[in-house]
Specification:
2 copies of one chain form a homodimer.
Chain A: H1 16-36, H2 41-45, H3 55-74, H4 81-92, H5 94-100, H6 106-125, H7 129-132, E1 135-136, E2 139-143, H8 144-166
Antiparallel strand pairs in A: 1-2
Helix pairs in contact in A: 1-6, 1-8, 3-4, 3-6, 3-8, 4-5
Chain lengths: ~180, ~180
């Protein structure tokens, strides 16, 4: 693992507290990518049992959660009906996700994650530590900092599940 | 959920960046406790398959990881041979954990987690944001802030697994 991922500290290009938060987001992402490295479409689509989400669906979920929080915080508004319906399968997972989130190679998910993340980094770079403490208009109980911590936290939660599921894929020798 | 858990911001009794970190640790812990609420000894000891860790073992792991990072950061030293051997079952999980981490009620784990957490909070309250950026002597690639972010991150990873395992406990109607 790159040495820079193992330190949480101010980062060039961001105000100090935003830099520390970006360090957490980046570290979390690096562990997600490590957890899915080398998986093929069959692995990504595999359902461990009839209530499980596939690893691919969990990656799609991670991406769309970040996208939803971009709307909630950078645009400071609720999701539109369109966004809500377009993202519902990946946001809510479950039966709908099992039906629709299939057949994509790892590169598809990785590219989606990277594109969305780049937008997050650009938007965070143009904000400051004062912004981070503001309440989110569409959900005033949370503040911007909690929202972005939660994006990392939700990803880490599902990475824990991805590791568990990967270790039990058919024909996987080891697991992580 | 308490409103204060949904904001990451400076906290009374801590320097500002440490306060934000404490907010993350506290939020993560609250979700772990919610994920295990109401479980009995049989639930806590249940093994989903022959390679799974029980939910109880995962709680013991969360506690001992925090304890190990207390040594690494607050005492700024490596684990002693004694600590290493005493904590190995819970730190490494797997076969040894499956054999030894059994038969305890939820209250046992909760009390262990709370006692260890109190020590963390007391120690963090007596340190400052400058300390948080220092390298950890026993593992100089990481800094104190990463170490404590990692304590939360490891807990969240396993909470993701706990939620998955809980939803599949025998005779559980729903899951979380």
């Amino acid at each position: 693992m790159e040495a820079s991922l193992l330190r949480i500290e101010p980062l060039p290009g961001f105000t100090p507290t935003i830099g520390r938060l970006v360090g957490m987001l980046t570290y979390a992402r690096s562990t997600t990518l490590a957890a899915v490295k080398g998986l093929c479409v069959t692995d990504l689509d595999h359902l461990h049992d009839d209530r499980s989400n596939s690893i691919g669906a969990l990656l799609a979920h991670v991406a769309v959660v970040e996208q939803a929080y971009q709307v909630l915080t950078f645009e400071d508004r609720e999701l539109s009906a369109d966004e809500d319906s377009k993202w519902a399968g990946a946001l809510k997972l479950g039966a709908e996700g099992r039906r629709t989130l299939r057949g994509k190679p790892l590169e598809y998910y990785i590219e989606q994650l990277a594109t969305i993340r780049q937008h997050t980094l650009d938007a965070l770079a143009s904000r400051d530590d004062g912004w981070l403490e503001r309440s989110v208009r569409a959900a005033p109980k949370i503040n911007m900092h909690w929202a972005w911590f939660h994006v990392a936290e939700d990803e880490i939660n599902h990475r824990g599940q991805i590791r568990w599921l990967r270790a039990r894929l058919p024909q996987q020798a080891g697991g992580v």
